[in-house]
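GTPase
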Amino acid sequence: MFLDYFALGLLFFVGLVLFYGVIVIHDIPYEISKKRNHPHQDAIHVAGWISLFTLHTIWPFLWIWATLYREERGWGFKALAESEAALEVKVAELEQQLSSLQAQVADMNNKEQ
């Protein structure tokens, strides 16, 4: 008789732990977005709840969405644009050096002839 009640209590306990465990796991992207001060925290939180009803198919995408943003660098595209501008300056300098070297080689060839 005692084991029947113990098994029933254990069944309820395991059910509650699984239920709340799933909820906690689905809040991980929201917690990441809160920690990173993500501009779309609310959308990630709502999408996490919707993910419970879509059989967890969008949950990995929420994780990616939450981890893409960092407050100190944003989405990361700004640094890319700055590095592109620096690369363009470098390319212009290298083109100028190349043209001066070509002129020097042409002068050396003219002097030899």
